Amino acid sequence: MCPFTQWNETIKLFRGGLPLRRHWAHFRCYDWSFTGSEAVDYLHELLRRNNNFGPEVTRYQTLQLLRKFLKAHVIEDIKGRHGTENFEDSGQLYRFPTLSPLKSFPARPLLKDGGDLPRLIRWDDYEELPQSENVAPQKTRVMVRERQTRLGLRVLGLVSLDGVLNPAHVSGKHIVHNVFSVNKSGVVVLENKAEDMPYWVVSAMKCLASWPNCSDSRQQLYPGFERDVLRTVGDYFQRLKEPLLTFHLYEVFVNILGLLQDREVATEALQVSCLLLPPPNRRRLQLLLRLMARVCQNPQLPPLNDFISTRTLMVQMFSHCVLGSGDEMDLDELLATKLVTFMMEHQSTIFLVPAKLRRQVEEHLSHLKRVQIKYAGSDTDFSASPAFCKQIRRAEPEEQKVVGTRVPLHELLEGLIADKELPAKDKRKRMKQFQRSYPDVYRKRFPTEESEAAVIPEKAPRFKPPLSLFSFKKPLQPFQRSWSFRA
Fold first, then answer.
1. Cα gap 270→354, rounded to integer Å
2. Biological process GO annotation list (predicted)?
3. Which CATH number fits the domain that encloses residue 34?
4. 236-244 long-range Cβ contacts below 8 angstroms, 24+ apart
5. pLDDT (tens digit, 9 = 90+) per residue, 353-390?
6. Would 346 be classed as within a structural domain?
7. Which residues constitute the domain of residue 210?
8. Closest-CA residue to 64 (of 381, 337, 334, 419)
C-alpha cells in the first residue's frame, strides 16, 4: 500500500472512530472535543489491531504520530492552534479541524514510452565489461524487458512500477556486485575499504554478537559494559545521512509491507529489492540485522534496558536507521517497525540471491562477452582489426612510474593537512616525518617558509615561570662573617 494511502486511511479511521464528547476546561464547556490521553489510548489500540502496523507499535510511537498529526493540522488544540504546538499525553483538550487533513497524491511523471515499464535491472550499465559501451542486440533488450516485468509484477505484486521506482536510481553495477562479490558468509565484500564501517564499530558489533565470548580479551568488563557497547553501535547508525534502504527505494520497500502475511512471497520480494542497494548499504544492513538477531537470541546477555525487552529495544533503536522517507509527515516510524521486525527474523534468507536470478545474470554476462563489438554511431566492425604495439621511449616508463607514485603521496600530504581532528602536536610530528621521507614532494607543496607556516600549526610557547625573589643572575658569593671583640 502506498504511504500516502496508509496516511489517509489512518486519519480516516482515527477521525471516524475516536469518541468525541463534552469537556470542561477553565470554567468553559467544549463540545466535540477529546483529551490528549484519550487520543493516545484510542490510536494506540487502533494501530496495534491494524495489519499494516501490528502489535509491535508502542505508546511512545503513537504519541510521536499524534505530534505529526498536530503539525500537519490533522488535529488542533481547543483554541485552534497547531504546527508550533506540542501534543501532550495529558488532559489537554483537542479537536478536529473543519478542513480536510487528507494528503493529495503526488503527480507521477509519465513514461516516455507508454507501453513500457521502467528498467528494473539495467544490465547495460555494468561498465566494467569491455562491451559496456556497445549497442546490445535487440534480443538482449527483450530479455531485459521480460525480467523487469517478472520482477515488478510477480515479485512485488504491482501492476506497474511507475511512481514506485525511478530507473535513474537503479544501477546494474550494484546488482552484479551484490550477486558475485560476497564472502563465504554471504556478506558483500567492498572494493573500496574506505566505504566500509570503521574498525571500532565492527569490533563493538562482534563483541556484542558473541557475548560473553568477546574476542578482545584485553577489554576490561564492568557492570553495564554491554549497554555502553550497544550505545556505541547505535550512535554510529543513527548518525548516518540517510537510512540504509535509502530514500530512493523507500516506496519499493513500503510496498513489500503488504506482502508480509505471505512469508515466502515477502522473502522473495526482499531478496530482489535488497540487490538494488548500493553495496556499502547492503553490507551494513546485513551485519546490523545479523547483530540484532543474535542479541535477541542470546540468553546469556544481560538485559539491555530496565523497562522494555531486548527484542523491542533493538527494533526501536534501529528501525528508523533502516527505513525512512524524506517526508517527515509519513508513517515511516511505524512502517519501519514492522518491516525491520520481519527482516530481523528472516535475516538468514532475505540476503540470499534467488537461483533463477543468479543464473540469468550469469547467462547475460556470458552473452555480452560473445556478442560482436559495434560502437554506437558507427557501422564499422573493429572486432577483426589487427592488434599492434606502439614503440615508446626508454625513459617513458620511468617517468610514468615517478608520476604514478607522486600522485598518492600528494593526496596523502593533503589529507594530513586537512585532518582537523588530529592534534596540533601530532600533526607537526607527522609533517616532519613526511618531510624527511619525501623531501621532493614536501618541497613542491611548501616552496617557501611562509607557505609552510600558513598550514602547519605553530608550536605553543613554553611556559616560563616569573623570576622569584630567590633567583639571581649571578651566583652567590660565599658567606663571609666578620667577628669583632670588645674589650
1. 11
2. intracellular signal transduction
3. 1.10.10.10
4. 236/197, 236/198, 236/201, 237/284, 237/288, 237/318, 237/321, 238/320, 238/321, 240/321, 242/324, 243/320, 243/321, 243/322, 243/323, 243/324, 243/336, 244/277, 244/281, 244/284, 244/285, 244/288, 244/321, 244/322
5. 887 777 877 777 777 766 655 544 444 444 444 445 55
6. yes
7. 147-360
8. 334
Spatial separation of the C-alpha atoms in residues 298 and 208, rounded to whole Å: 10
What is the value of pTM for the model shown?
Answer: 0.58
Count of structural domains within the chain: 2
Residue-wise pLDDT for 414-451, tens only, equals 888 888 778 888 888 888 888 888 888 888 888 888 88
Counted residue by residue, the chain has a size of 487
In a domain, 13, yes or no: yes
Here the cell at position 383 is 572486432
Residue 236 in grid coordinates: 554510529
Domain boundary among 307, 339, 360: 360
Report whether 146 contacts 154 (CB < 8 A).
no
CA distances, 295 to each of 206, 298, 406 (Å): 11, 5, 47
Helix H or strand E segment including 206:
helix 199-209
Q: Give the model's pLDDT for residue 16.
A: 86
* Cβ(322)–Cβ(288) below 8 Å: yes
Residue 153 DSSP class: I
Q: Read off the CATH number of the domain in which 326 is found.
A: 1.10.555.10
Strands (E) across 310-366 are located at none
9 with 158, same domain: the answer is: no
